[in-house]
Amino acid sequence: MTRLARLIITEIEESRQPTLPFFDPLKVLKASRYKKEVSDTVQVRNLREEQRIVDGIGDVFGKLYRDLCLDKLIHGTRKDVQWNDILESCVLARLANPSSKRRSASLLEEDYGIKIPLEKIYRVMDHVADCEESIKQRISQTTLSLFGQHVDVLFFDVTTLYFESIVADDLKDFGYSKDCKFKEVQVVLALVTTTGGLPISYRLFPGNTYEGKTLVAMVQELQKEYSINNILLVADRAMFNEENLLEMESLGIEYIVAARLKTLPGNLKADILQSEYKAAVVMDELYWVKEFGHKSRRLIVGYSSRRAKKDAADRQRLVDRLMKKVKDGKIKLKDLIPNYGSKKYIQVENGSASIHQEKIESDAQWDGLHGIITNVKDKAPDELLSRYRQLWQIEEAFRINKHDLKMRPIFHWTEKRIKAHIAICFLAFALAKQAVYRVALQQEKMSFEQIRNELLHAQSSVMIDLASRKKYVIPSHVTVNQKKLYHVFGLKRSQVPYELT
To answer: What is the pTM of this model?
Structure first.
């Protein structure tokens, strides 16, 4: 009865307006209800493949999308069902094969049998922009629900997203680019995640915003929109300024922020370099740790021999690049490398440059040293250093967004479309992290890239009998990992061919 009711509901919705999800719900429901085994009388020589469909992405991520109640984000229009179906297809297309909206429309038709006019994708983006805040709130709720609506620690970081454009406006603007795209305009994206990298929220800032100015605005938004209080916020050294620290203290926020050791007062720097350190274990690695006081806060400095080797190797690589430019002990100004990392080891005199040996030796004193500033009173130094080192989770989040989901470059120009693009990417990222998290709960550790690759190879061939004109579905072989993934999400994938009625 339940299946029949679902079938009737789908037929009613289909009669009102065509639905455009990652699969045709009417055909799938009917096929699952009235599935027929292939008759022995089918002549193989009469069979031709009509279409190859990737159904793993739609099966698994489509179910997760609906389980998280993301299929009703757009509301208040006359065509809510249609717009939500198109949005789901756009999000799953980005998970499967991220590309421009124009290319996504082509891929949906080629790989999934879904034909969506490009103008409808753009129209749904306008609806997405209108419900951007509700999308962020829904994602926050899905993450918090995994932890009893409460998290103790949040990670914060900022990145930049560039455009293939030099035209600036109130949102797109020139600024310091983390992608080294200084000739293109950009936007600044601030992201907040849990310790496991699950998304809480994000915020867009104009491209010329100094990243150190984003933290307070983001914290205030979290407290206002999501009632997130009594948390420990972890951020990198770009957020290390007195204004940020004072503001977080006034808001009652505990924090761990990377300290810029070389910018500290001279007497404190001398203490850091001359003090004796105690051995400690930080995330299974031997550290040497010392705590100092700075402006009524705790400054914790750790030394790692592994980090010291890396610092020395990185510096030597820069020096080697400069040495290739040296002739008779000097470097011609026109040959200088336009890179701050290299230029800091150069001194200019009388129109020529030379390698600044004293600067190299001064920097070498700091090899292996790293510091954090914190207002947390009741945790040991090694515990706080370990907590900070987990910040790689949010760096991994940016890697997934920029590379796996290709959030940038951005090919939209109006503020509304830009916000919609980021929101769609954020939905895809939330699904990716939820999938990784749920798979890990089953003690099956898989990266998003591994999950995606497995599901992209869960395919079906739609065959047509040239004699009878009947159509048959032949599922592809199910791998061990595909079987595990389907099981995690309460699904079962059959390998038995059946007639599509």
So the answer is: 0.83
